[in-house]
C-alpha cells in the first residue's frame, strides 16, 4: 500500500470520507478505495512516527482489520479517522511488542511550560511535519508527545478524538502535543511555539 498524497482535512474532506465509508459499508468496493486514499496518507505518517520503516507493513495489517470490521463502525468521516487511527495504533503496539522494542524516550521533560512569545509561531514545524526528517525527529520525542503530535498534525484529529485514541484526558494530550511541537519547532529552527498552546490544542479538558 503506497504512501499516496498529503493528508487532507476539513469539513468537505470529512463529508466526502463519510459518504465513501457509508457506501463501502453497503458493499461498494470502489468507495472503500476512496476511503483508503483519503485516510492512508495521514495514517501512514502516524505509523512512520511510531514504527519507522515498518509503517507500510503495519498499515497493511491495520487496513485488513478495518476492512474486516467495517460493518461495525458507526459514525461520520471524522469518526472514521479516529477509529482507523485506533486500530492502527493497536497494530503498531503489537508490532513493537513482537520486536521487543522499547519506545524511544528522552530526558524527563520540564514540568513548567515556557510562556509563549507574542509574535512567534510553530508554522515551520507544521509545514515540515510530513517530511521524513521531521518524522524521524518526532520518533525521538517521548512516546506521549510523539503520538499526540502525530494524531493532531498528521492524522488531523481534534483534541477529544486524539484523547480517545490514546485513552487519555484531552488536557493531557493537549499538553503533550504542545510540548512535542515546541521541541520539534526548536529542532527545526523555529523560534518557539504559540499557536498550539495547551489552551488552543484541544477543545476541553
UniProtKB/TrEMBL annotation:
It comes from the Bacteria. SUPFAM superfamilies: Sigma2 domain of RNA polymerase sigma factors, Sigma3 and sigma4 domains of RNA polymerase sigma factors. Transmembrane segments: none annotated. Residues 135-184 form the RNA polymerase sigma factor 70 region 4 type domain. Pfam families: Sigma70_r2, Sigma70_r4_2. Signal peptide: none annotated. This is RNA polymerase sigma factor. InterPro entries: RNA_pol_sigma-70-like (IPR039425), RNA_pol_sigma-70_dom (IPR014284), RNA_pol_sigma70_r2 (IPR007627), RNA_pol_sigma70_r4_t2 (IPR013249), RNA_pol_sigma_r2 (IPR013325), RNA_pol_sigma_r3/r4-like (IPR013324), WH-like_DNA-bd_sf (IPR036388). PANTHER family: ECF RNA POLYMERASE SIGMA FACTOR SIGK, RNA POLYMERASE ECF-TYPE SIGMA FACTO. Belongs to the sigma-70 factor family. ECF subfamily. Keywords: Sigma factor, Transcription, Transcription regulation. Residues 36-100 form the RNA polymerase sigma-70 region domain. Coiled coil: none annotated.
Amino acid at each position: 500500500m503506497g504512501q499516496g498524497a498529503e493528508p487532507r482535512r476539513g469539513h468537505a474532506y470529512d463529508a466526502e470520507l463519510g459518504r465513501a465509508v457509508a457506501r463501502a459499508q453497503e458493499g461498494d468496493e470502489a468507495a472503500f478505495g476512496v476511503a483508503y486514499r483519503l485516510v492512508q496518507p495521514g495514517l501512514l505518517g502516524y505509523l512512520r512516527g511510531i514504527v519507522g520503516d515498518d509503517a507500510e507493513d503495519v498499515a497493511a495489517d491495520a487496513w485488513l482489520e478495518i476492512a474486516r470490521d467495517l460493518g461495525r463502525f458507526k459514525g461520520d468521516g471524522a469518526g472514521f479517522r479516529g477509529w482507523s487511527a485506533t486500530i492502527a495504533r493497536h497494530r503498531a503496539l503489537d508490532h513493537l511488542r513482537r520486536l521487543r522494542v522499547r519506545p524511544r524516550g528522552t530526558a524527563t521533560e520540564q514540568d513548567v511550560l515556557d510562556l509563549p512569545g507574542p509574535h512567534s509561531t510553530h508554522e515551520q514545524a507544521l509545514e515540515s511535519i510530513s517530511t521524513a526528517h521531521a518524522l524521524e525527529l518526532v520518533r525521538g520525542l517521548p512516546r506521549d508527545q510523539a503520538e499526540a503530535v502525530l494524531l493532531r498534525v498528521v492524522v488531523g484529529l481534534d483534541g477529544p478524538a486524539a484523547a480517545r485514541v490514546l485513552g487519555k484526558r484531552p488536557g493531557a494530550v493537549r499538553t503533550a502535543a504542545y510540548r512535542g511541537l515546541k521541541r520539534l519547532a526548536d529542532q527545526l529552527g523555529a523560534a518557539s511555539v504559540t499557536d498550539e498552546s495547551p489552551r488552543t490544542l484541544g477543545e476541553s479538558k
